């Protein structure tokens, strides 16, 4: 039986789904032991109910001015102190921008090993993670010492909430000092209606959209499906959209239930960011485009004709 610490993430006041997925992974790691969670920020305690119902027996909350906006300096100090306080056998974070940034820093600082970008936890425990841009999977196991993992969003199904379970809330005083960076302001580049890395449906545009305005039919379909809109690097390089939308090896990795690729050729670097999607639909006017090799459904056609038709049909059933 092990004690597992999950660092929960809050974004725009909402607990991120990946934090509940991390609690599910923690149950496999705890083997009947204790699961505790940590949350930073002014409204941290408001998330204790959800964290408790998903398995955390204790929720450590830390409110500190330096934690209001993410900085590696402050978060590394905070997580290190939380680990020293909770003394877990295993630590689980989401493989998010924050998790990817602090997990290796804290693991190195404490002398722990780290398995990052885990897509499933199997008996052992054995951790499964994609390698070579998703072309192969690797299984890894900790021989001894503290287990430290980050999990890829949208891969581990969230366990059912148990309303009878509650967590004890423990406010923690952190000693955060010697900060080298202070965030003064955050400017969002995307509308951020649906978070790309956690979206259940992603519609992406490539160079085939031909202009910034060419994203409009994708936005229209996204509105109807409640989807997030992404892009290939080709579209970003051509200045049709912001790099925050880029999916792929050097962009975001997404694993939605449905990925619709529009005017994207299917270069290996793009596939690295989306090939684990559960269902892939490709719309491309070139029947030889490599994207069709990974697609479950392919539509050979002009995206400017196909997308309005799809939007109109979905509107009939969904709106
Ligand atoms: P193209 O390859 O130009 O394809 C455009 C497609 O649109 C074509 O297949 C065409 O048939 C189709 N099309 C055109 N008009 C229409 C229409 N009206 N209707 C339907 N279809 C149409 N790329 C990424 O995406 N993500 C990454 O993270 C990434 N990282 C990289 C890292 C490195 C080190 C390198 C070298 C490259 C990386 N790339 C990445 C770039 C990648 O190799 C490709 O160049 C890029 O993905 C191509 O983008 P695209 O598919 O939009 O453009």
TrEMBL record:
PROSITE patterns referenced in this protein's UniProt entry, alphabetically: ETF_ALPHA
Molecular function, one GO term: electron transfer activity
Record-linked InterPro entries: DHS-like_NAD/FAD-binding_dom (IPR029035), ETF_a/b_N (IPR014730), ETF_a/FixB (IPR001308), ETF_alpha_N (IPR033947), ETF_asu_C (IPR014731), ETF_asu_C_CS (IPR018206), Rossmann-like_a/b/a_fold (IPR014729)
tRNA-binding found in the keyword field: no
Required cofactor(s): FAD
Residues the record lists as binding FAD: 207, 232-233, 246-250, 263-270, 284
The name this protein goes by in its record: Electron transfer flavoprotein subunit alpha
Span of domain Electron transfer flavoprotein alpha/beta-subunit N-terminal: 4-186
Annotated family: Belongs to the ETF alpha-subunit/FixB family.
Keyword list, A-Z: Electron transport, FAD, Flavoprotein, Transport
UniProt cross-references to PANTHER family, sorted A to Z: ELECTRON TRANSFER FLAVOPROTEIN ALPHA, ELECTRON TRANSFER FLAVOPROTEIN SUBUNIT ALPHA, MITOCHONDRIAL
Cofactor notes: Binds 1 FAD per dimer.
Pfam families: ETF, ETF_alpha
This protein's record includes keyword Electron transport: yes
GO biological process: fatty acid beta-oxidation using acyl-CoA dehydrogenase
Organism, as annotated: Brevibacillus fortis
């Amino acid at each position: 039986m092990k004690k597992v610490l999950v660092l929960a993430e809050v974004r725009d006041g909402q607990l991120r789904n990946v934090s509940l997925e991390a609690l599910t992974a923690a149950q496999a790691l705890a083997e009947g032991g204790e699961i505790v969670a940590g949350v930073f920020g002014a409204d941290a305690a408001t998330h204790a109910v959800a964290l408790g119902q998903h398995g955390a027996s204790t929720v450590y909350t830390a409110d500190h001015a330096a934690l209001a906006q993410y900085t590696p300096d402050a978060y590394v100090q905070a997580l290190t102190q939380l680990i020293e306080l909770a003394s877990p056998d295993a630590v689980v974070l989401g493989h998010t921008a924050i998790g990817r940034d602090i997990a290796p820093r804290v693991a190195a600082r404490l002398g722990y090993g780290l398995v990052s970008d885990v897509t499933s936890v199997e008996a052992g425990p054995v951790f499964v993670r994609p390698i070579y841009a998703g072309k192969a999977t690797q299984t890894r196991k900790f021989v001894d010492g503290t287990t430290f993992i980050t999990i890829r969003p949208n891969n581990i199904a969230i366990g059912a909430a148990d309303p009878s379970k509650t967590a004890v809330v423990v406010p923690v005083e952190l000693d955060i000092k010697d900060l080298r960076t202070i965030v003064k302001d955050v400017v969002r580049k995307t509308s951020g209606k649906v978070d790309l890395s956690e979206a259940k449906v992603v519609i992406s545009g490539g160079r085939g959209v031909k202009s910034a305005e060419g994203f409009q039919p994708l936005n229209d379909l996204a509105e109807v499906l409640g989807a997030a809109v992404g892009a290939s690097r080709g579209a970003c390089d051509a200045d049709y959209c912001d790099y925050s939308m880029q999916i792929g090896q050097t962009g975001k990795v997404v694993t939605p239930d449905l990925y619709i690729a529009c005017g994207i050729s299917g270069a290996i670097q793009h596939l690295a960011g989306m090939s684990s999607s559960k269902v892939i639909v490709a719309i491309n006017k070139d029947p030889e485009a490599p994207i069709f090799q990974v697609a479950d459904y392919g539509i050979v056609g002009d995206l400017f004709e196909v997308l309005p038709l799809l939007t109109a049909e979905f509107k009939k059933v969904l709106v």
